[in-house]
Amino acid sequence: MNNTNIRWQQRFENYEKAYLLLAKAVSIIEPSEIERAGMIQFFEMTFELAWKLLKDYLEQEGYMIKSPRQAIKQAVQAEIIENGHQWLDALEDRNLTVHTYHKETALAVENKIVSVYFPILTALYDDFNTIIKTWTLG
Questions:
Q1: What are the C-alpha distances in Å from 3 to residues 38, 49, 54, 77, 126?
Q2: Domain positions in the chain
Q3: Which helix (H) or strand (E) holds 59?
Q4: Short-list 92, 90, 89, 56, CA closest to 71
């Protein structure tokens, strides 16, 4: 097993930790302002690790990835992820929330996290759990 294989597997371990924190935050029915801010922060961390996981995995497969947008587009082409437009929307919202805080923006992003972004991050989590099991058995 080379360093590239180890890198994406280590990245998945970090992704899993962030994803599970996001899952807890998403499960809060009526979050307070502080809980909402935490949910957005966990989304930012989870999304950052998601695109880097895709990047590391794609590089192990021989692709050269330079940006989050390129990682997403290549992952769609390689059929690792679906719903590329939702992933690109998540990238835009992640960039927006990192640089500013407005209550209206936070509420809108919270709704998208729960209804759109968390499901695609869950699919990635499930898919890479399967990949990890295949690698450890193989």
A1: 33, 18, 16, 25, 23
A2: 3-137
A3: helix 33-60
A4: 56
For domain 3-137, the CATH superfamily is: Nucleotidyltransferases  domain 2 (1.20.120.330)
Distance CA 67, CA 16 (A): 21
Whether the Cβ atoms of residue 58 and residue 65 lie closer than 8 Å to each other: yes
Q: Which two tokens stand for residue 46?
A: 């989870």
* Angstrom distance (rounded) from CA 107 to CA 1: 44
What does pTM read for this prediction?
A: 0.92
Among 28, 53, 49, residue whose Cα is nearest residue 39 = 28
59-73 pLDDT, tens digit each: 999 999 999 999 999
